[in-house]
């Protein structure tokens, strides 16, 4: 039977790993403005026919943790209302709703069905790709208007403070990045000044690294990338009720981050959360088994601090499994 002391050690280790994989660089509206509109260190040369002269991009990668979508859509909507699109400050934002049908899609459908508001969309989005689920949520609850213009050369996108596009074919982080770039290119946004990647906190750092890899060959220099997990999950160890200690997970609870009454209800199961954390670090490694340049090559090199490696080892050993 696991001890409370072991649970405390595991919780501390989990929080160390969680903070690292989330890579929180954007938290507030002010942070988002800075990430999107900060002066670029790269000079972008534009043709008169190109409309990407000052475009900044937010990519919302779909997740079964729907609070991420809530935060991103509400914040981007607020941002677009305050964005100056009049010359000479022609700032414009593109929001890409990203996700196809993959191994976690059913979890997202289940989350929609359980959600106190979004469950009204459950029948409408049944069987749809993740990006289309996000589209339905955005249109119904956040007044977002998706650009379904199939003729990007018409210039319609140029006049919008906020352009919303949907990428609905990607099934993993690498394809999120690849297909998003292809979508942006197709709409004339070939050289964005910045890209903020919003993703499930358990894989946000790796997703940003995938985007960095995809844009590594950008002729005019890569965009400035930022990570927006929307929150960093933390767990705490608590003494469970007598008779309920059947595993180390029995001790764990998510720390309340003051994100609303039903926020915890929309999180992962504790078992899945721990599995995601344990499985993420090996993916980020730059070795033959990882996704870095010396492995699959789908992400740029990530330096993993020794304290994170130590925490991952502690968590893996105490939980007795190796991740998803």
UniProtKB/TrEMBL annotation:
Gene3D superfamilies: HUPs, YdcF like domain. One of its GO terms (cellular component) is plasma membrane. InterPro entries: Cell_Envelope_Assoc, Rossmann-like_a/b/a_fold. Transmembrane segments: none annotated. This is DUF218 domain-containing protein.
